[in-house]
Amino acid sequence: MKPAIRATALRKRFGAAQALDGVDLEVGAGTVLALLGPNGAGKSTTVRILTTLVTPDSGHAEVAGHDVVRAARRVRASIGLAGQHAAVDGRLTGRENLLLVGRLHRLSRRDAARRADELLERFAMTAVADRLAQTYSGGTRRRLDLAASLVNRAPVLFLDEPSTGLDPRSRAELWSVVDELVAEGTAVLLTTQYLDEADRLADHITVVNQGRVVAEGTPEQLKRGIGSERLSVRVQLPEYLELVGDVVRRVGGHPAVADPVAGEVTTCTADGARLLTELIRQLDDLGILLAGAELHRPSLDDVFLALTPQSPTAAALGGGR
Amino acid sequence: MATAALSDTMVLTGRSLRHWVRQPQLALLSTVQPVILVVLFAQVFGGAVHTPGTPYIDFLVPGVLVQTVAWDSTQTAVGIAEDVSTSTVERFRSLPMSPAAALAGRTLADACRNLFVVLLMTAAGTLVGFRPRGGAAGVAGAVLLVVFFGYAFNWFFALIGLTVRGAEAALAASFIWVFPLMFASSALVPTDTMPHWLRPFAAHQPISQAVDAARALMLGRPPGEAVLATLAWAVGALLVAVPLAVRRYYRAD
């Protein structure tokens, strides 16, 4: 079966900035791919290319079997997009917003009205359906935006940072809607900065940084890939931080991130206890004492930190590379 | 294909007209304002400006009609710039509608509004002494010409709204175009009272042509080349602005 989204070697430059530098990805029907990465990594540009809003400089992408450049209209008919900024028309009511989108998807007046009713019901918006959208709370606007992206029952759905600014309850609602859609066979491409969201929703994760894919796999694979545990050691004297970082990197064989504020060096490892023992022995030989040590199960945050090394603390100390 | 494009345009015309109705203050003010202008200009300039052979109010009303549609085009620029900054354009561009529909819908809604305002101003003019000797046919011809001219203007200003960033910049950019055209024109005073250097521009620029044409039609005088010149300006502006604006619309970010 053809994947719902397939992109190969996408490149896009904006002025001097190489926003995308060869991105490949694939999303199958009924699965969720989370596109993860820091601000400016190229997540939004990827989504904008795949939703026909921007044309790539080079590379190739197909969505629902249609080329995003040559068959843009067909792609548009096959996708739903809930944007970063809720693109809701404040001077129309919630119902009118959905009718407008339905009519522009070339539904008949009657079908557009029926679909709007269904969606208003599904998103528990019947009570506010005939109020102007500009009177809605932020969460309700987001729900309306999401509802608008579902009007055409698209087989491919793009959610560009859908839960930014949502309260926990709205977020949980969003997640359950995504679960339902995926169960119905919708392919979802989700960009997010929230790792718990990716962990909760995604079947696959693609981590992008500086316009390139730096890692991909299931959430489990990614966590395992950087070591099964996370070890943090706290130094007594801040001037030893860099030296300890070097030792941790050498002994553990994995990237280490030094955090000067906490006075900690963090790394990932397959066997935390052995690494810790070896570390203490070697540091003792150097005459360095530790103030403390902790072992954690890794989270996606660790994956993220390990894979996107130009975060300020890591860059300042040359860690994690 | 063509019927789908038409249906998309009508849906979006409805959206823009709804916006206007939903802002009763704006709707009321933008209707009352031109009426006040007619009455005010008639009183203020009436004594000072000599329009030989024509009562000033007859001279004035066609001029203010054209000025008003030109002025209201700034709202087109602002509206489109707002759609860009609120991501509405992104939503529209991600929908499978015909490429020109969003701009065609907006400009068509503006044309409907202009028709309403122009008719209202003409009626208000007759209350303060405007006597269109061109009769019903002359008035109808002038109104249609002015509205069509305004439609071309709207597309040009839609292009401005897509070229600059943000509603405030759109307004400022619009003023740069609209003020010289509105005032260095034959709308309020005969151009032969202006300094020599300004006269050739003032007499031949598009607003003056539209004013002269509307004035001739409404007052039942031979329009000379003004009607043709106005149509030529309008069609020319549309031929340039429509493709540029539509292209720009799909590139805006």
**N-to-C span of chain B:** 27 Å
Fraction of residues in β-strands of chain B: under 5%
Overall shape of chain B: globular
Poorly predicted regions of chain B: none
CATH topology of the largest domain in chain A: Rossmann fold
Strand order of the largest sheet of chain A: 6-7-8-3-9-10
Overall helicity of chain A: 25-40%
CATH superfamily label of the largest domain in chain A: P-loop containing nucleotide triphosphate hydrolases
Large-scale geometry of chain A = elongated
Secondary-structure element sequence of chain B?
A: HHHHHHHHHH
Mean pLDDT of chain A: 87
Supply the number of structural domains of chain B. Answer: 1
Instruction: State the domain count of chain A.
Output: 2
The number of helical runs of chain A is 12
Average residue pLDDT of chain B: 90
Percent in helix of chain B: over 70%
Specify the biggest β-sheet of chain A. Answer: 6 strands, mixed
Backbone structural class of chain A: alpha/beta
Q: Largest interface, by Cβ-Cβ below 8 angstroms: which chains and how many residues each?
A: A-B, 28 and 23 residues
Protein topology:
The complex is a heterodimer of chains A (321) and B (253).
Chain A: E1 5-14, E2 17-27, E3 32-36, H1 43-50, E4 58-63, E5 66-67, H2 72-78, E6 79-82, H3 94-104, H4 109-122, H5 138-149, E7 156-160, H6 168-183, E8 187-192, H7 195-201, E9 204-209, E10 212-217, H8 219-225, E11 229-235, H9 241-252, E12 256-259, E13 264-269, H10 272-286, E14 290-296, H11 300-307, H12 312-317
Parallel strand pairs in A: 3-8, 3-9, 6-7, 7-8
Antiparallel strand pairs in A: 1-2, 1-4, 4-5, 9-10, 11-13, 11-14, 12-13
Chain B: H1 2-22, H2 24-46, H3 56-85, H4 88-93, H5 101-127, H6 135-163, H7 167-183, H8 199-204, H9 206-219, H10 226-249
Structure description:
- The complex is a heterodimer of chains A (321) and B (253).
- Chain A contains 12 helices and 14 strands.
- With 321 residues, chain A is α/β, with parallel strands linked by helices.
- Chain A has 2 domains: 5-217, P-loop containing nucleotide triphosphate hydrolases (Rossmann fold, 3-Layer(aba) Sandwich); 224-317, 2-Layer Sandwich (Alpha-Beta Plaits).
- In chain A, the strands form 3 sheets. A 6-stranded mixed sheet of chain A has the order 6-7-8-3-9-10, with helices on both faces. A 4-stranded antiparallel sheet of chain A has the order 2-1-4-5, covered by helices on one side.
- In chain A, strand 12 and strand 13 form a beta hairpin.
- In chain A, helix 3 crosses helix 4.
- The model of chain A is unreliable at 311-321 (pLDDT under 50).
- Chain B has one domain (2-46, 54-249).
- In chain B, helix 2 crosses helix 5, helix 3 (56-85) runs antiparallel to helix 7 (167-183) and helix 3 (56-85) packs across helix 9 (206-219).
- Chain B starts with a helix and ends with a helix.
- The model of chain B has no long low-confidence stretch (mean pLDDT 90).
- Chain B is built from 10 helices and no strands.
- Chain B has helices spanning 2-22, 24-46, 56-85, 88-93, 101-127, 135-163, 167-183, 199-204, 206-219, 226-249.
- Chain B has 253 residues and is mainly alpha-helical.
- The interface between A and B is medium-sized, with 28 and 23 residues.
